[in-house]
Task: inverse folding
């Protein structure tokens, strides 16, 4: 059986979430219809909204359902009417592509946003501003100082959006504790179906829709709600609260895996190893190997991991996150992300380390053979 170690790409759909989707597909009505069928569908949507709201400690009316985490982030960045956008250099493409003219907030070599730089940027220009800082990075797992950044933003009259897509369900997330004004999340990272996301909005903040339509989602997102997907999202959100109990076990396996990998290959590095990270995410880098080759070899060996940030075509770009941290290119080129989940076992991570170390050794052997002159060539010389 192949071992799935790519939970940050997407988590397997939980059986209870799949069952909720299947059951809700049988619900006939449009949630906006006033008749009994419509009211039944509305109940499904509103139950899901209450579960998603509870996961991040807000009131249900603060939750705007979207079609993805990407859409939620774009709604946040375009919907609050702030013309200046300050975006951390660590952000996912969901945020960066929504803000092509954004000013970048630099990051430290530890993979954390530079708060002093953020303050300088805020102080330099009084234009109404939105700051976007993710709660946890999808590649390194580093948890960002969102509460501190939100306090700074507010001191300068700015609002703050946090992309919590990777954090929710892995660490406790509470909008009020974070002090964020807007927070994005995505169903498929929590064991819900892909195609559902949410933007959580501070109670009094006005939001212009990105998609206009029939006034759904209190006029904040047009389009008939995807009742079945949202039902799955709600159930996954409820399960995610309970799944936080698995975090210590997952963190233990991750640390074991990292220690074993570094023992087998002492010149490898765990990127941002000393930083506060998600319990499930490790970015393991080694010189002299290409990440995409490692990923393919590991796939053949039965282990599913990612190389850097996978984009939609499945190809691999050089990581902007690692560049922002100043990780040398030759090390970044050999970085693979391993992300664990509640089903991961000690045997899974031990098997992964064996397969990874064997592939690194094989690659290095073939490189050193390739650079050794053959006997024929040597005799010519
Ligand atoms: N933000 C982060 C940090 C992510 O890792 C991802 C997905 O990988 C997204 C946003 C986008 O979420 P979705 O796939 O729901 O559009």
Result:
């Amino acid at each position: 059986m192949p071992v799935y170690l790519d939970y940050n790409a997407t988590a397997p759909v939980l059986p209870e979430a799949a069952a909720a989707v299947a059951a809700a597909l049988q619900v006939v009505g449009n949630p906006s219809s006033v008749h009994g069928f419509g009211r039944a569908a509305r109940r499904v949507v509103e139950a899901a909204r209450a579960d998603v709201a509870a996961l991040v400690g807000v009131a249900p009316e603060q939750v705007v359902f979207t079609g993805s985490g990407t859409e939620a982030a774009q709604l946040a960045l375009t919907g609050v009417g702030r013309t200046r956008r300050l975006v951390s250099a660590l952000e996912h493409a969901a945020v960066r592509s929504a803000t092509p003219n954004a000013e970048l907030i630099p990051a430290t070599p530890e993979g954390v946003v530079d708060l002093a730089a953020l303050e300088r940027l805020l102080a330099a220009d009084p234009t109404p501003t939105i700051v976007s800082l993710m709660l946890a990075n999808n590649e390194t797992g580093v948890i960002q100082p969102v509460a501190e950044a939100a306090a700074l933003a507010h001191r300068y009259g700015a609002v703050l959006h946090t992309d919590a897509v990777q954090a929710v369900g892995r660490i406790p997330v509470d909008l009020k504790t974070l002090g964020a004004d807007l927070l994005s999340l995505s169903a498929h990272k929590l064991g819900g179906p892909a195609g559902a996301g949410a933007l959580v909005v501070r109670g009094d903040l006005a939001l212009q829709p990105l998609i206009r339509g029939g006034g759904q989602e209190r006029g904040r997102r047009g389009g008939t709600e995807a009742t079945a997907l949202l039902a799955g999202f709600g159930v996954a959100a409820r399960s995610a609260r309970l799944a936080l109990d698995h975090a210590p076990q997952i963190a233990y396996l991750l640390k074991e895996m990292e220690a074993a990998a570094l023992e087998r290959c002492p010149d490898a590095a765990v990127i941002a190893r000393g930083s506060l990270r998600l319990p499930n995410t490790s970015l393991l880098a080694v010189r002299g190997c290409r990440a995409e080759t490692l990923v393919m070899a590991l796939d053949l060996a039965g282990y599913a991991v990612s190389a850097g940030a996978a984009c939609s075509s499945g190809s691999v770009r050089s990581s902007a996150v690692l560049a922002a941290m100043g990780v040398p290119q030759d090390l970044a080129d050999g970085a693979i992300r391993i992300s664990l989940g509640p089903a991961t076992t000690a045997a899974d991570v031990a098997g992964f380390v064996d397969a990874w170390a064997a592939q690194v050794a094989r690659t290095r052997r073939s490189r050193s053979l390739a650079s050794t002159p053959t006997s024929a060539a040597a005799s010519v010389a």
Remarks:
- Residues 1 and 302 are 7 Å apart (CA to CA).
